[in-house]
Amino acid sequence: MHMSYSRNIVLALACLAMVGSQPGCSPEISQAAAAGKERAVPVVEVAAVQLGPLNRPLKVSGLVRSRQAQSLGFKVGGVLGNVLVEPGQTVKKGQVLATIDPVEYSASAAQARDGLQKADRDLARATALAKEGAVPKATLDDAQTAARVARASAQMAGFNERHTLLLAPTAGVVEQRLVEPGEVVAPGRPVVAFLGLERGWAVDVALSDREVAALHSGQAARVVFDALPGRTVEARLGDIARLANPATGTFTAEVVLPEDLPLTARSGLVARVEFARLEAAKSIVPLAALVDGEGKRAAVFTIEDGQAKRHPVEVMSLSDGLAGLVTELPANQPVVIRGAAELMEGSAVTVSTPNGAE
């Protein structure tokens, strides 16, 4: 294109020098040369400058988990009697999941109850005799103490007896049974992996310190699951950790999912989370408008009276084809988005109109 422009200009100059003396310089050739000279003016496309702030969404990924994942075990130890549930089974609150052989604990509870009855009888007799002055006050005090000790022992034995039954703390799903009948289990050993349903599901994401500073609990979020592309779920940001992970330096945050999920929630599903985030850019221009970029420094061209005007700018951030600028540009002067790389300060330009006319 540049070579054809040069040939037309040289031909036009030659014709001007030899007007009237050379028949080869016809009016048609002169007109072609003049047209070529006009076309040498760059034709550019422009776009409007937007005012800030810039919507620069924060995008992170995480894994789905139950907000009430628990490993359930017995308060007491002993021989496991039965495991009454299977993996994947849905249970109600208070439903029996497993049992410890209760013989030992039932016997202890019965013994404690009998001891309490005897202590109560002794206390009643000592109280009656004390009123008649037949026994010293110390005897009555000992009987009262013995009754209190027996009552505490009976309560403790009854508590242990009741805890030979492992009950579901809430409605939920049995994820895994970890022991089998006949095994001897210690107090606190996990027997059933349980997922409670009352608190719902969440996505755990890792955030940097700058990202944490830009977000707050309760903020709206949009979630897309890898297993269900194209479907967006509206969620909210829950708790953000106060303590960073010492290995990664990031903060764990939970994104709370709604109850009406478009798929069956499962721990470990991959989810992509997006938070709306505004940055205080003074001007926003298309990325294509930037020229002479070096670090955060760049430049853009505007058109004033048919000439290119160069504006040095400082770039704050880039997002979805847009550049947020620290520099404030005139809002009524569009920037060049095509052909800017060929321009210089003061270059004559022609602006292309939307329908292709110039």
Short description:
The protein has 358 residues and is α+β, with helices and mostly antiparallel strands. The chain has 5 helices and 25 strands.
Strand content: 35-45%
Number of helices: 5
What string, H for helix and E for strand, traces the elements in order?
HHEEEEEEEEHHEEEEEHEEEEEEEEEEEE
Q: What are the segments in which pLDDT stays under 50 over at least 5 consecutive residues? A: 1-30, 32-37
List the strand order in the largest sheet: 2-19-23-22-21-20
**Helix/strand/pairing category:** alpha+beta
| Total separate domains | 4
- Tell me the CATH superfamily of the largest domain: Efflux pump adaptor protein, beta barrel domain
Main beta-sheet strand count, sense and barrel state? 6 strands, antiparallel
Count of beta strands: 25
**Mind telling me the C-alpha Rg?**
41 Å
CATH-defined topology of the largest domain: Elongation Factor Tu (Ef-tu), domain 3
Mean pLDDT across the residues is 85
CATH architecture assignment of the largest domain: Beta Barrel
Q: How would the global form be characterised?
A: elongated
CATH class of the largest domain: Mainly Beta
Proportion of helical residues: 25-40%
**First-residue to last-residue Cα separation:** 18 Å
